[in-house]
Amino acid sequence: HVQLVESGGGSVQAGGSLRLSCHASGDTNGMNSLAWFRQAPGKEREWVAGIYGDRRHYDDSVKGRFTVSQDNAENMVYLQMNSLKPEDTAMYYCAAEAYLGQGTQVTVS
């Protein structure tokens, strides 16, 4: 079993930046799939970005603005979000393999 705890959300003005963090604990050995999802009010959860082996992929809506990274030594996954837009407002979730965290809220005004 894997536990995921996100942090770093908050409220920012358009054009600002936030860095989300996700700490993984438990049976983290061999995790090859790490991702961030988001869910805006009234919308379905959508994939944002992920690390799959040695490759990083991004949804077109965040490409060039968001960067996903990891620190294996600390069991951390990060999402650096720059040039934030109001449409980025959502609850952001960290995912590792089949596990999902509880989310951290990002609000852009």
Plain-language structure description:
With 109 residues, the protein is mostly beta strands. Helix content is 0%, strand content 57%. The chain has no helices and 11 strands. It has strands spanning 2-7, 10-12, 18-26, 33-39, 46-52, 55-58, 66-71, 76-81, 90-96, 99-100, 104-108. Strands 2, 4, 5, 6, 9, 10 and 11 form a 7-stranded mixed sheet that branches. Strands 1-3-8-7 form a 4-stranded antiparallel sheet, with no helix packed on it. Strand 9 (90-96) and strand 10 (99-100) form a beta hairpin. It is globular and about 40 Å long. The N and C termini lie far apart (37 Å).
Main attributes of the structure:
109 residues; mainly beta; 11 strands; 0% helix; globular
Helix-strand layout with pairing:
Blueprint: E1 2-7, E2 10-12, E3 18-26, E4 33-39, E5 46-52, E6 55-58, E7 66-71, E8 76-81, E9 90-96, E10 99-100, E11 104-108
Total of DSSP H or I helical runs spanning 4+ residues: 0
Residue-averaged pLDDT, rounded?
A: 95
Large-scale geometry: globular
The fraction of residues in strands falls at over 45%
Report the biggest beta sheet as strand number plus sense, adding barrel if it closes. 7 strands, mixed
Low-confidence stretches: none
Radius of gyration: 13 Å
Order of helices and strands: EEEEEEEEEEE
Could you state the oligomeric state of the chains shown? single chain
